[in-house]
Structure formats: structure tokens, C-alpha cells
Amino acid sequence: MQYEFKNSFGNTFLLTKFDPGNNWIYNDWQGLLSMEGIVEGCAGMLNILRHTHCPYMLNDNTRLQGSWKHANDWLATTLVPQVVEAGLRYYAHVAAPGVFGQASAEDLHLRVGTTFEMRIFETLEEAQEWLRDMQHQNQPAT
Q1: How far apart are CA 101 and CA 65, in angstroms?
Q2: Which residue from 33, 46, 61, 104 has the fewest beta carbons nearer than 10 Å?
Q3: Edge-to-edge strand order for the sheet containing 117-121?
Q4: What are the two backbone dihedrals, phi and then psi, of residue 48, each rounded to the nearest 5 degrees?
Q5: In what helix (H) or strand (E) does residue 7 lie, and over which residues does it extend?
Q6: If DSSP codes are grouped into helix, strand and coil, which group holds residue 101?
Q7: Is 47 helix (H, G, I), strand (E, B) or coil?
Q8: Structural domains of the chain in order of their starting residue, each with its CATH number
Q9: For residue range 88-116, what is the model confidence (pLDDT) as tens digits?
């Protein structure tokens, strides 16, 4: 299951999909984001989460430009309760390059608090490693 979202210029701003090989939902955000795009993209991601009940999410902002802090109120008050209800427990966030992307991620992290476990990473590899560690720690004992 996957969705691709494009802006009015036909440019992809989000590819979101369930990755069964890694057992996580992967979000690849790109370019500049409008509030409308964030809401639309998050609806697709939430739909995947509701269908899979996958507790692990990898949010990749390495190709994102600028700030998305303008969406953090909506994310914290509207989206976060919905993703928790749908089963999200571990959220690995790869920050966008530059100070604005990092500041947006840190602001969201403060708002999320202990609602679910969120970690911010500089590289995709670090985020993937952490999610794999969380999966390993949460495997039932045999």
C-alpha cells in the first residue's frame, strides 16, 4: 500500500508506503510544504497506519526544504491523537538539512512529549538502525 502526493505544479511532495520487508511505514517528504499539502499527505499516511496497525514509522525529511513549523499545532492536536489510536508507538524522524528543518522537528518533538517514542536523526541509516533496535526489543520471547 502506498500513496504519492503531488502539488499543483505536478511535483511530488510526499511518497508514503508500508514497507513490509522492514515492517515500518516510510514517509519521503520533498520540496516546500504548504499546510494543505501536509494535511493531505498526513491523511494518506494515516490511512496506511489504520490498515496496517504498524507501530513503527520512518519519516524522511532529507529532501525537504525550509520550515514546516507552521503545521506543528495541527500535527500535535489533531494528527498525533489519531496516529496513536491507530497504533503508532515508535517514530524515527530524519531532520531536513538546515536550521529550519531541525527547529521544526525539535518543536514537534517537544509537543509530542511521551505520547509515543520519537527520536530525531541526522541520517536515514541512524533512523533505520534505531527502528530495527526497537523492533528487536519488542519481539516476544520464545
Answers
A1: 7
A2: 46
A3: 2-6, 12-19, 24-31, 56-64, 90-94, 117-121
A4: -60, -45
A5: none
A6: helix
A7: helix
A8: 2-123 (3.30.750.24)
A9: 999 999 998 876 667 677 777 676 777 88
